[in-house]
Amino acid sequence: MTHFVLYAIGAAVTAFAILFGYRILLHPLKSYPGRLAGKLTNAHGGYHALFRSQHLEIRADHLRFGPVVRIGPNKLVFNTVKAIRDIYDNDDKILKSHVYETFVQTPGVHSLFDIIDNRDHSRRRKVVGQAINERSMRIFESTMVEQIDNYIELLRADSQNGPINMTEGINNLACDIVGLLAFGYQLNLQTETTNYFLVEGMRAANLIANVLMQFYTLRRIGLTSLLNFMSRNALNQYFALLEKLITTRTGKEIDAHHDLYSIVMEANKDAVSLGDSIRMSELWSEAMSFFPAGAFSTSGGISAALFYLSRNPKCYRRLSEEIRTAFSSDDEIHSGPTLSGCQYLRACIDETLRIAPPVPGTLWREVGPDGPAIIDGHVVPSGTEVGVNTYTIHHNEEYFPHPFAFKPERWLPSETPNEQIKTALEAFIPFSIGSRGCAGKAMAYLESSLVLAKIVWHFDFRPAPGKLGDIGGGTPGRRDGRGCKNEYQLYDMISGAHDGPCLVLQPRV
Questions:
Q1: What letter does residue 380 receive in the DSSP assignment?
Q2: Is the Cβ–Cβ distance between 59 and 391 less than 8 Å?
Q3: What is the percent of the chain with per-residue pLDDT over 90, rounded to a whole number?
Q4: 8 Å CB contact between 411 and 264
Q5: Per-residue model confidence (pLDDT) at position 450
Q6: Domain residues for 471?
Q7: What is the number of structural domains in the chain?
Q8: What is the pLDDT of residue 277?
């Protein structure tokens, strides 16, 4: 028995030595710079994903090694505008990476987010995209405004009790809006505690998925269940609630609400090739990605905007003047020419999306079998995973001078040279680009605009005094990328988890 164990250990050591030797000395990507641990194993990326810091690690790698870095045995991450176009706007050569299979709960059943086949993605986007395009948002806006008005009234009441951590309330608001948009379901997170577990469940699911995306071997060797077991209570409650939402909605008439369900069912009701069971499984899959994507992306952006506005008095005063001049009453704050004409509001939102992108990580793509592909002049072989890290390129000084400064004016043609704005726009990818760009862009802008405009119209606000006011920022002295007190901290788990800011609000009217 002892000899067998020693033999097995020896064989394993030899196998790993051969594998690691190949990855360093013979691999097609051997000439690209990067950390040794990353060249040897994707466990390096999985480790940083577990601690929600991979976006910071990748930026540090680019600063150390240059614009192209090998962060995994078969992974290259780029930090140039040319690479953005070559990767995300090149459906002929570059596909969505196989690591998106992480999100597939039922074999063969995909959501818009994880479909790899381009033709299937195009079919699905035509349907799902109808629920969150500009036309749909105009129909849904009254429901959205009702939820935002409820939030404003809760803020008004809570403001009498001292400083408020804005993250919890904004998360609850965003989830309530997504519940209504997806299935016409009243989650009531703003007023009841029954479904509070939803946010924790979504975070757990996102964290696990991100670890598996970065270290896909865990899925291949069947360790997904172990990760799920670590958060089983939150995940079980989350999945049970999604099932309740779907079954409740399917028990109503298709046109009972204007929501994702009604649009998907209407589009598919005459489809001969799809049975009801397939449509229901697809709808479940869409719900799994629709909730965290719709809720966390907007809540993170709004929270970050409040953080930066509260710490940049000139920006805050300018936005307050614009909003309070444009609208004489709360009832006037809705989509239309007046809201669209608030250029500084849009600039604040865009600057927030730049400095604190809703998805701070890397949207992985894979060079397809028709490769190699030319990416920013580099010949990249088939099967290589490639991407541009959003947080890193949004903090690239070549495209964004003073990248850690909150400067909404960088987006205003009246204050910034057109050539500089053009350069910034080419590197600005909070919703990605190309055919796989985020379908929820219109929803994110409308919701963010309405919430911020109403908060600024109704309240004066400032950071809470003392340590409460530091919540959301970095900790001076840290050397892991989180040492900037005035940078809103993102925790990469596909979407950017966050905390704060903690504000003192004074009602105006």
A1: E
A2: yes
A3: 61
A4: no
A5: 97
A6: 32-507
A7: 1
A8: 36
